Amino acid sequence: MPRVAIRNLSRPLENNLVVGMCAAFGCRLRGLTFRRALAEDDGLLMDCGRASRYDSAIHMMGVFFDLGIIWLDERQMVVDCGLARRWVSVLAPTAPARYILEVCPGRLREFQPGDTIEFHEA
Prior knowledge:
CATH topology: Jelly Rolls
Number of domains: 1
CATH superfamily: Protein of unknown function DUF192
Number of helices: 1
Order of helices and strands: EEHEEEEEEE
């Protein structure tokens, strides 16, 4: 799985954030299920291929830890953020999103709706 470095152009991140990138349906479906932990500088960026509320919904079945979720539109602007509790079945953004960034819950404070995010191969 390729890795990408995440940068918030609207406010500096407190620490580096380098995450796995997946676009294939199977990779997005699996997400972070069955992992036992997530390091603070790690996560997952999923590309849904198009902006949609339905396609960017996530499930937490099989995820053993809480996640911070940041939804981005096609311009890589944050459209919604939320805390996903382990084993809660489904969450969806309030606006259509193309990208889903899953991080440790403590990193949520580094992102707000309206922020512009940049990512590039690490």
